[in-house]
Amino acid sequence: MLTDIRMPPGRRDDGLRAAVALRAERPHLPVVVLSQYVQTGYAAALLDSGDGQRVGYLLKDRVAEVAEFVDTLRRVTAGGTAIDPDVVRQLLHRPRDPLAALSAREREVLALLAEGRSNASIAARLHVTEAAVGKHIGNILLKLDLPPSDDTNRRVLAVLTYLRSDPAG
What we know:
Rossmann fold, Arc Repressor Mutant, subunit A
């Protein structure tokens, strides 16, 4: 299977979700996913799918060389793995603590989200505007690698990440 991460109808992560779903049914299905940019969450989902073999995650700007691309497809079909070097670099350099990339203020906002507070409540508590809270939440979602999806609530996923990180110590 060769797919782009962003496919119709949603143009979000439909191609990746289809690939992961197909590999759940057919773990040995060779899959190569193309992406415009590095999204480590997508790469991890793909690598965790099926039997962990016969997968490829390539950035689109690297598939211009036809012979190299065909070699990659053959390698994946034969049971190998092909991960773009930029993706590997980012996967290897991801902080172990998922909250490590957050600023102190973003951690405060996330802690208040974990209490179930609304943006207005967080703004009042921190003496900032709701727009500032919205910006902090956007930064949190970006830094936690939680891309938009019709199937998930990113705020809930951010709170779960916070709770799993053992914020109490």
